[in-house]
Design a protein that fits this description.
The complex is a heterodimer.
Chain A lengths: L20 E2 L3 E6 L2 E6 L4 E5 L1 H9 L6 H11 L4 H17 L3 E2 L4
Antiparallel strand pairs in A: 1-5, 2-3, 3-4
Chain B lengths: L1 E7 L2 E7 L4 H8 L12 E7 L1 E8 L6 E4 L1 H18 L5 E10 L2 E6 L6 H10 L3 E4 L2 E4 L5 E4 L4 E3 L5 H5 L1 H4 L3 E4 L2 E4 L10 E12 L5 E5 L2 H10 L12 H10 L2 E6 L9 H11 L3 H8 L4 E2 L2 E3 L31 E7 L3 H14 L7 E7 L7 H6 L7 E5 L8 H8 L4 E6 L2 E3 L3 H11 L6 E3 L2 E2 L6 E2 L1 E7 L2 E6 L12 E2 L7 E5 L19 H8 L4 E3 L5 E3 L13 H15 L4 H10 L2 H22 L1
Parallel strand pairs in B: 2-3, 7-14, 14-16, 15-18, 19-20, 19-22, 20-21, 24-31, 25-32
Antiparallel strand pairs in B: 1-2, 3-4, 4-5, 6-7, 6-8, 6-9, 9-10, 10-14, 11-13, 12-13, 15-16, 17-18, 22-30, 23-32, 25-26, 27-28, 29-31
Helix pairs in contact in B: 6-7, 14-15, 15-17, 16-17
Classes of the chains: A alpha+beta, B alpha/beta.
Chain lengths: 105, 609
């Protein structure tokens, strides 16, 4: 029996075309660049370091993942070669914790 | 009957107790003149037939019988704390120690086993005032807090050094088995407010170097939330209060391996911070620029300064423990080290084939490698299983981790299992029924091991030496019929055992690594007045083969050392151990191990005397 792989996608489109939006039941506290998110229902707290917090803030239900990558590439050109993979990895982690709408495993 | 009222924040609890406990309770808890509100819960302690045994009636719950004085006070202190927290909603409460210097407070939050009581003791020994070792409450006027002024409890897992600190050794105390209840202040103090100027998260690990790592506000919030003990009473589980505290108060993660490392470093550091009145942000900015000094390092390395740090999601290096939930009848606890598959199948088999006990059970997984690859998947099971609790544990390693299960269990009956066993259908329910009909049992309860053919079984170990192990599998025909009455056995493999939490005698705190517990634990129960029983219905199956290897070290010197320490503690002759290992490993291998272990034991005795 095959093991279900954890990959991120939306129906019929690639991950870069997905439009991630934060789930409403996560409460956010921004703290000196970092963030804490708390889900009351699941009693789960998630700590985001500065870079993950930046990506989280860009998941606004308006931008596609591809657009988020573009925003960060232009803000941090020296890291542009790795930005696509880093953003996708981070979003995959968000998905694993069920923190996003508009994107599924 | 005498009465005492104990309070914390806006909560109070009334304790009624017999005259024979008056001196001890007055010494340890003081006299409180507060009048209790009419709605305050009452905990009643009664003599149980004679003046040296007691019954404890926690408010509205089943009673605990047959307790000696020390056990009664120990359980009472725990029940008082529990009662005070049950409806506390005017502040956010943390599982934490606290000390003060010139009325400025240091809070030491930590889950059981993190070393907060030992560190509290160390601070007292270094001139700080004792506030609590258990509960701290922050109200709306952050960063002020109130501490639950109970006596300090050094559990069997606490650092040996803590009990022998000068301030602890000279204070009034009561021994409870291998635990110790100590009153480190001249007299108990009523709760009063202190301003919190520093939060220290202790992480004790035997042999660890000293590190003092400043935490950001978000990291502090994450750690604090894991120690919140009244979340269910609070709006958003206290998230807003926790983040407010985290922003206001500087915090550090303290890792240390012994008290010697702390002298002249932690006390000086604490005094400096207490005088500074820094908030979390300024504290972090300043202390991150300190580099490593001899024996101590302060601050993590800066990441890719000036650029976006590599985009990463960092939930936590160690997953946070699942918050405690309502008490159940039975805790089924298992310790694991990088064995996700074992935990998964053990747990899900229990849920699938024992549906009748699901509502009554807490499933507790103690992760002995919480930095490892299985930690996060184990943690995530909490999202799927309502009564599942994940607890990281890197303070205790090896065999003694099973003792931590008893510290974390929320039920009076604890079934401790390996994370790779199956239990036959119906057996867990029968175990609960058996224990309900034997509420005073102080016995160690086990059952027959079923082999992979599902037909043959072993009921016990015969106390014989074979291939470096004390105990050889053996079969008593009385175990054939699952309905046969329980019978005494000399010893048995510890892949599955159960007992009342209050009857748990604990492992020797000197044990290291794996091995040496079979026979030792059985005799400890017997020496404490219990029996070692085989319940024929409690049949279980164990995965023995590990074709992919075992991810932790199982060392002969640890096993041999544990045997020597355990037998010495029990007053047994250690001659047969030496004889067997000299024959099995050869004198050239066993001899030096035995010599080293004997020297260590002699040193322990010298230290303790």
């Amino acid at each position: 029996m095959a093991v279900p792989s954890v990959s991120v996608a939306c129906e019929g489109v690639t991950i870069l075309q997905c439009v991630p939006a934060p789930r409403k039941d996560y409460h956010l506290a921004e703290m000196d660049g970092e963030s804490l998110l708390y889900c009351h229902e699941k009693m789960t707290m998630v700590y985001l370091n500065e870079s993950a917090a930046v990506i989280w803030r860009l998941c606004d239900g308006q931008r596609t993942v591809g657009q988020i990558v573009d925003v960060l590439k232009s803000a941090y050109p020296s890291l542009s070669h790795q930005m696509g993979a880093e953003v996708c990895d981070t979003i995959q982690q968000f998905v694993r914790y069920s923190m996003l709408d508009g994107i599924e495993t | 009957m005498r009465q005492i009222v104990l309070s914390l924040a806006d909560q109070a609890v009334v304790v009624e107790y017999p005259e024979s406990l008056q001196d001890d309770l007055r010494t340890l808890l003081g006299e409180c003149t507060n009048r209790a509100p009419k709605t305050a819960p009452t905990i009643i302690v009664q003599e149980d037939g004679s003046s040296d045994r007691y019954i404890l009636h926690p408010d509205g719950r089943s009673k605990l019988r047959g307790l000696d004085k020390g056990s009664c006070i120990y359980a009472l202190i725990g029940e008082v704390g529990h009662s005070l927290l049950t409806n506390l909603s005017t502040g956010v409460a943390f599982h934490a120690g606290a000390v003060s210097l010139r009325n400025l407070g240091i809070v030491l939050p930590g889950t059981s086993g993190s070393g907060k009581s030992s560190l509290t003791a160390w601070f007292i020994d270094n001139g700080f005032d004792y506030l609590t070792d258990e509960i701290v409450v922050f109200g709306s006027d952050v960063p002020n807090f109130t501490a639950f002024a109970r006596p300090l409890v050094l559990k069997s897992g606490s650092s040996v050094a803590a009990a022998s600190l000068k301030a602890m050794a000279s204070a009034p105390s009561i021994a409870v088995g291998s635990n110790k209840i100590i009153l480190p202040t001249p007299e108990p103090r009523p709760p009063m407010q202190h301003q919190c100027r520093l939060i220290v998260f202790p992480r004790f690990a035997e042999g660890a170097e000293l590190t003092i790592e400043p935490l950001t506000a978000a990291q502090t919030g994450l750690e604090l939330m894991a120690c919140n003990v009244n979340a269910r009473n609070l709006v958003n589980h206290g998230f807003d209060s926790v983040t407010s505290i985290a922003r206001s108060v500087p915090a550090v993660m303290l890792r240390y391996g012994n008290f010697e490392l702390l002298h002249g470093v932690l006390d000086a550091f604490a005094e400096l911070v207490l005088q500074s009145d820094l908030d979390s942000k300024r504290f972090c900015r300043i202390f991150r620029f300190f580099g490593t000094t001899a024996g101590a390092s302060i601050g993590p390395e800066e990441e890719n300064s000036g650029n976006l740090p590599s985009a990463g999601f960092v939930p936590s290096k160690v997953p946070a423990p699942t918050p405690r939930r309502d008490p159940k009848k039975l805790t089924i606890g298992m310790a694991t080290y990088d064995d996700y598959d074992g935990v998964y199948f053990t747990l899900q088999a229990l849920r699938m084939y024992h549906p009748e006990i699901i509502e009554d059970a807490e499933f507790l997984v103690v992760d002995n490698h919480p930095e490892g690859p299985c930690a996060e998947p184990l943690k995530q099971l909490e999202n799927w299983i309502d009564n599942y609790r994940y607890v990281p544990c890197n303070h205790w390693k090896g065999t003694t981790t099973r003792g931590f299960i008893f510290e974390e269990a929320n039920a009076e009956l604890v079934l401790c299992i390996d994370c790779h066993i199956f239990v036959v259908p119906g057996a867990v329910k029968k175990l609960i029924s058996y224990c309900e009909s034997h509420p005073d049992s102080r016995d160690l309860l086990q059952g027959p091991l079923l082999y992979d053919d599902l037909e043959t079984w072993s009921t016990h170990f015969e106390p014989k030496w074979r291939e470096g192990m004390y105990g050889c599998w053996a079969t008593d025909d009385r175990g054939k019929d699952p309905d046969f009455e329980p019978f005494e056995i000399p010893m048995q493999g510890l892949g599955l055992f159960a007992c009342r939490r209050s009857a748990w005698p604990g492992f020797n705190r000197r044990f290291r690594g794996f091995g040496g517990e079979e026979g030792y634990l059985h005799e400890k129960f017997r020496q404490a007045g219990g029996r070692s029983l085989c319940l024929p219905f409690l049949r279980w199956m164990h995965r023995f083969n590990r074709p992919m290897g075992v991810p932790y070290m199982n060392r002969w010197d640890d096993r041999l050392r544990n045997y020597l320490i355990g037998f010495t503690e029990l007053g047994w002759d250690t001659g047969p151990i030496e004889e067997h290992f000299n024959e099995f490993l050869g004198p050239s291998v066993a001899g030096p191990i035995i010599e080293r272990a004997k020297a260590e034991i002699a040193q322990f005795d010298a230290d303790e005397s």
